[in-house]
Amino acid sequence: GRITYLELVSSTKQWNVLLLKYQSLRKLNPNKKNNAKKALNIELAFLKKYGCPAEGVCEEYDKLAQRKVPSLNRLELYQQEEPEEDFESINGQGEPSPSNNEL
Q1: What value does the mean pLDDT take over residues 62-68?
Q2: 8 A C-beta contact, residue 7 and residue 24
Q3: 70 CB contacts (<8 Å, ≥6 apart)?
Q4: Cα–Cα dist 44/102, whole Å
Q5: What is the 3-state secondary structure (H, E, C) of the chain?
Q6: What is the pLDDT of residue 70?
Q7: Could you give the CA distance from residue 43 to residue 77 in angstroms, rounded to a whole number?
């Protein structure tokens, strides 16, 4: 199957939103206590803007707003530094090319 233009636009937007949220969260210092609340506010802002209907009730937002946030150090996102992937490595283009012996 072929991907439609609307599917491409939708998935590209979703990827960009997730990347922006990830980058926003990674900027927070996990050792500062008040950054747990900032992380929750980032999550709430992204959920409200991209995940909730424009009008009416958003149960997911209400549930998340009620949650107590643990220290960021306890969250997987902040537990260890991993090298950030670039576009080429995500798409398999960043791998070394085979040597002549492997061909």
Answers
A1: 91
A2: no
A3: 36
A4: 50
A5: CCCCHHHHHHHHHHHHHHHHHHHHHHCCCCCCCHHHHHHHHHHHHHHHHHHCCCCCCCHHHHHHHHCCCCCHHHCHHHCCCCCCCCHHHHCCCCCCCCCHHHC
A6: 79
A7: 13
| Chain centroid to CA 51 | 13
Q: How far apart are CA 79 and CA 77, in angstroms?
A: 6
CA quadruple 66, 16, 36, 29: dihedral, nearest 10 = 180
The CA distance from 91 to 88, in Å, is 5
Q: Is the C-alpha dihedral spanning 63, 65, 67, 73 positive or negative?
A: positive
| pLDDT tens sequence across 21-33 | 999 999 999 999 8
Token pair of 91, please?
């798409």
Higher pLDDT, 95 or 3: 3
